[in-house]
């Protein structure tokens, strides 16, 4: 073993250089990705998303078809900026919608229209999801930096410590959950761990969940600052129990009494 000790500094130097190279490459790729996302939001995905939403919300058939004409006139298969969307699947779906619309414009058949509209709605959903994913990638921590940079040093340190505790206890909870399943599997198949391991793992998991819940109570706003996406719980409540969300928004978010100005009553002038 001692004959390998002189080579240890060389091995450490190689490992350090390799890790530094990998870290530098990753940092460069992330910076390039964020630049691409910024261009994506401004030039392609943003305009695509808002235009498709406007088309979907338009009820007048003639106006809607005019908007679709303008949409494919601006974002057609000859437009070189579409590649900046970055998602090959959505780009190909967009081209498919364009061909279906051309078919409908020639035939003016109801079946062709229905087929095209179904594909366009799928495109709208995909583009909307792509837009908000890119938005979160670029601005996901915008509110966090806005909050910490404008706070005094004491509040800033408290927020940073709470965030670190959030991350630590979140990892501990997941690890405890895995350990519970592994200890159960060991109890029935391997029997390597001593007796009482299952009880210990369940106690650790329970304690982790209690600490995580306590941190959520005292620092729920911090989790919202670090992540602007809607939580899974809120999405489920919006579908299953919308009254809870309505109560929260009406009684909590809009609880303050504000005077509403009088509405302008337009007169109907008969010519």
What do these coordinates show?
The structure is a single chain. The protein has 9 helices and no strands. Helix 5 crosses helix 7, helix 6 packs antiparallel against helix 7 (197-226) and helix 8 (232-240) packs across helix 9 (242-253). It has helices spanning 8-57, 61-74, 88-107, 110-139, 142-149, 153-190, 197-226, 232-240, 242-253. The protein has 2 domains: 9-139; 142-253, no CATH class. With 271 residues, the chain is mostly helical. It is 78% helix and 0% strand.
**What sort of overall outline do the alpha carbons produce when their principal axes are compared?**
extended
Which spans of ≥5 residues are poorly predicted at pLDDT below 50? none
Task: Compute the number of strand runs.
Answer: 0
DSSP helix count?
A: 9
Question: Regarding quaternary structure, how should these chains be classified?
Answer: single chain
Structural class: mainly alpha
The span between the termini is 104 Å
N-to-C SSE string, H for helix and E for strand: HHHHHHHHH
Helical amount among residues, as a percent range?
Answer: over 70%
Gist?
The chain is an all-alpha fold. The protein starts with 7 loop residues before the first helix and ends in an 18-residue tail after the last helix.
Sum up the structure in keywords.
single chain, 271 residues, mainly alpha, 2 domains, transmembrane, transmembrane helix, membrane
């Amino acid at each position: 073993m001692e004959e390998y000790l002189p080579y240890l500094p060389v091995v450490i130097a190689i490992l350090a250089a390799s890790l530094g190279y990998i870290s530098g490459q990753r940092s460069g790729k992330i910076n390039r990705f964020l630049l691409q996302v910024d261009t994506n939001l401004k030039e392609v995905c943003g305009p695509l998303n808002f235009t498709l939403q406007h088309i979907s919300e338009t009820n007048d058939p003639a106006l809607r078809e005019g908007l679709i004409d303008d949409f494919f006139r601006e974002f057609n298969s000859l437009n070189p900026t579409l590649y900046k969307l970055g998602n090959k699947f959505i780009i190909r779906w967009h081209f498919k919608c364009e061909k279906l619309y051309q078919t409908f414009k020639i035939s003016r058949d109801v079946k062709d229209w229905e087929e095209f509209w179904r594909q366009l709605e799928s495109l709208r959903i995909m583009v909307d999801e792509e837009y908000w994913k890119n938005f979160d990638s670029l601005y996901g921590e915008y509110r966090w930096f806005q909050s910490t940079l404008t706070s005094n040093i004491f509040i800033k340190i408290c927020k940073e410590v709470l965030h670190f505790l959030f991350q630590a206890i979140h990892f501990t909870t997941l690890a405890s959950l895995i350990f519970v399943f592994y200890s159960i599997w060991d109890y029935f198949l391997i029997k390597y761990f001593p007796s009482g391991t299952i009880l210990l793992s369940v106690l650790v998991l329970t304690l982790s969940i209690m600490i995580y819940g306590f941190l959520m109570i005292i620092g729920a706003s911090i989790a919202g600052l670090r992540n602007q996406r809607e939580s899974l719980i809120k999405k489920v409540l919006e579908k299953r129990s919308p009254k809870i969300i309505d109560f929260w928004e009406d009684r909590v978010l809009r609880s303050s009494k504000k005077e509403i100005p009088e509405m302008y009553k337009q007169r109907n002038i008969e010519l």
